[in-house]
Amino acid sequence: MSVHVIIGEDDCLVSEAAKKVCVGTVEVIDSVSSTNADQQLADIRRADAAFSTPPFLEPEKTTWWKNVHFLPGGRAAEEVKKALEKFAEKISSSAATMPEGQNFIISGPHLLKTSVFSKKISAVAQISLFASGKPWELRRMAVARAEEYAKESGLQFSPGTAEKFISVVGIDTRSILSEIAKMREYLGPNAKVISSDDIDEITSPGARNDPEIWSVTDAIGERNASVALSAIKKFELETGFAVFMSGVIEKFFRQLIDVKTNGTAGMNPFVARKNEGFLKNWSLMELRVARARFLALREKVVSGTEAGGALVVTELLRAIRKRSPQ
Q1: Which of 29, 67, 165, 181 is most open to solvent, judged by the fewest CB atoms within 10 Å of its CB?
Q2: Burial (Cβ within 10 Å: 0-12, 13-18, ≥19) of residue 309
Q3: What angle do the packed helices 161-169 and 135-152 form, to 10 degrees?
């Protein structure tokens, strides 16, 4: 069995690290809404049961206990601390005897290294700590991540351009990933190097303030339901998925409406060309109706609903499949 503890305040960075060690069937226990001792103790019991349950139908299984904000270093009642320590003791003593092909991941924003929980679980767990730091440290780490993500996409920055890329995009991990994906698509499959000119033409300034998921929005613009659903699945495990995704989709429809009515003057050339292509697939009325429905949906999921993710998918399919004469 493999045990991983992943700690950091950048939710996207933590999620990316967790996804890299997920194998087989993935069971997610999300503690983001567990705000009192009873809920937190119930989550610990669920995690304990999942840890003790081997894979059945498949040879590999991952349990991902995410958003555990009540680990030592965060706020937690005494009985929760004791239950965590007891669970850490069980993991420490049992991990070596658990079946191969079984992964157990714990992720959260904080962990006190000197705590009993940390000392016990560190004996068997691989601990990844994405700590906050001074601005220049965060920037240096963001540059390293950009270079890593570019390499994973088959690209590399020309000398000095990774620093320029981060100065434009910012240090938000989700934005870095989004802009690298956009760069890969724009440059084409044969390109190997990202130049300074590429950054000037393609990269969206300040993307970290309102990140776009290009794989999703491109599929929406093309009215390709199967590709859109496949793209959305990549983000379903992220915290606040329904709120985030409904906001991204509403913003995309709003942008298309603006281009449809006002043109592309002043817009990033790459974005302008893509949007003009998308507009061939949508009437202005369809865009306005879709945007209004996603505005209403966003208000609903922000207020809290367990079915938020399903509602986003249902509403998206309604918008994409409902085609009127152009």
Answers
A1: 181
A2: middle
A3: 110
Closest CA to 9 of 108, 126, 105: 108
Look at residue 291 and tell me whether its pLDDT is greater than 90: yes
Q: Is the pTM of this model over 0.70?
A: no
Over the stretch 304-319, which tens digit does the pLDDT of each residue have? 666 678 888 899 999 9
| 6, part of any domain | yes
Residue 91 to residues 23, 48, 74, 108, 162, Cα–Cα distance (Å): 19, 9, 21, 17, 41
Query: 28-39 burial by CB neighbour count: b if 16+ within 10 A, else e?
Result: bbebeebeeeee
Tell me: the pLDDT tens digits for 118-131?
999 999 999 998 87
Compute how many other C-beta atoms are within 10 angstroms of the C-beta atom of residue 83: 20
Could you give the number of structural domains in the chain? 3
Which of 307, 313, 321, 304 minimizes the C-alpha distance to 246? 313
Domain hosting residue 75, numbered range: 2-130
- Residue that finishes a domain, picked among 111, 130, 149: 130
Tell me the C-alpha distance between 87 and 81, whole Å: 10
Domain end residue (candidates: 177, 209, 241): 209
Q: How far is CA 198 from CA 113, 140, 194, 201, 235, in A?
A: 43, 21, 6, 5, 27
